[in-house]
Amino acid sequence: MEKKEGKGNLYHNMNKNKPKQPDMTGYLMFKGEEIKLSVWKNTSADGKEYFSLMVSTFEPNKNALQKEVQTQDDEKDKLENYTNQNIPSKQDQRHALMSKIVNDDINDMSNILDLDDDPF
Fold this sequence. Notes:
- This protein is of the alpha+beta class and 120 residues long.
- It has helices at residues 62-84, 90-113; strands at 8-12, 24-30, 33-43, 49-57.
- The chain folds into two domains: 8-59, no CATH class; 63-112, no CATH class.
- The radius of gyration is 36 Å and the shape is rod-shaped.
């Protein structure tokens, strides 16, 4: 949902566990900045109900930000480690395979011909 200048929302705090926690929370867009709203429902000494309001600048959850930064750092490290590996080229891989095949064939031939025995 797009947040519009001069407009905002308040929501009932369904997770309120302590009396000092706000009854409602929300935001207001003011001069391009998201402002956090906290509202408490109170009763005056003469029994009249009123609302107390606290306004603060919106700050994203620091734990979530730290986790996001750590995840980005981990991904960057993985990429750097991958690019720094000495991965053989396709040509080097083919050469190694052919060398193995040739060596295996030579070993097979020497076993078949039994070249270790001196026929003379």
